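Design job #97: recover the sequence.
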């Protein structure tokens, strides 16, 4: 079994927290380096942390980011209340600048970007956030990583033990079994998303943009 060393962002958010939990439990992951503005609040023998105030400029910590097989980029923010310029800076500029620094230090790295269901690959649609995420996806795939994957989750059932779960999920979680039965390719568990990210690195996948059904398929791939 191939063991990988992973850099993770967004560990204090819902998706990053769920991905971190799976990485810490998964035998394929040898080490996780969480990079963020504040501590994720977890302790584990596999886990290392770098607390860095300015995620827009990681040049000062670049020397600590070498020797890794993958980046699971789970850092993100809602578009609500933001202009397209503001959302582009958070979602596109930050992601691409971070990715370029990692690429300069890890030529054989696989970059996994958490995007979102209904992201607009044409970059021309009417929905602002979807255009911006589509632009981020497209530009990541142009970088010479070993592989770049874009994951487009929708509703995800949180993993037991997560510290960071959106409050809305506490009220609608009971709907998950029904939704999974009626719309099996439109909802997933957080564990399936995390497993798909890990297996995209250890096993590979034939698509660079993974919709929910792709993530479920990859998560269950032996």
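Job complete. Output follows.
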């Amino acid at each position: 079994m191939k063991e990988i060393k992973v850099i993770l962002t967004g560990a204090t958010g819902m998706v990053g927290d769920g991905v971190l939990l799976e990485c810490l439990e998964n035998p394929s992951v040898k080490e996780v380096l969480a990079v963020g503005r504040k501590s994720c609040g977890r302790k584990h023998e596999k886990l290392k942390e770098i607390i860095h105030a300015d995620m827009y400029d990681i040049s000062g910590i670049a020397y600590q980011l070498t020797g890794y097989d993958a980046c699971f980029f789970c850092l993100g923010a809602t578009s609500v209340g933001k202009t397209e310029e503001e959302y582009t800076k958070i979602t596109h500029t930050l992601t691409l600048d971070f990715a370029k620094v990692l690429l300069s230090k890890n030529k054989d790295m696989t970059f996994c970007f958490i995007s979102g269901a209904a992201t607009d690959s044409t970059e021309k649609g009417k929905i602002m956030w979807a255009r911006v995420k589509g632009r981020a996806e497209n530009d990541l795939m142009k970088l010479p990583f070993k592989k770049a994957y874009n994951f487009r989750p929708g509703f995800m059932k949180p993993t037991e033990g997560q510290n960071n779960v959106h409050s809305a999920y506490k009220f609608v979680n009971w709907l998950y079994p029904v939704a999974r039965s009626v719309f099996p390719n439109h909802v997933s568990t957080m564990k399936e998303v995390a497993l798909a990210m890990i297996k995209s690195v250890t096993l590979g996948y034939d698509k660079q943009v993974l919709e929910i059904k792709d993530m479920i398929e990859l998560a269950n791939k032996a």
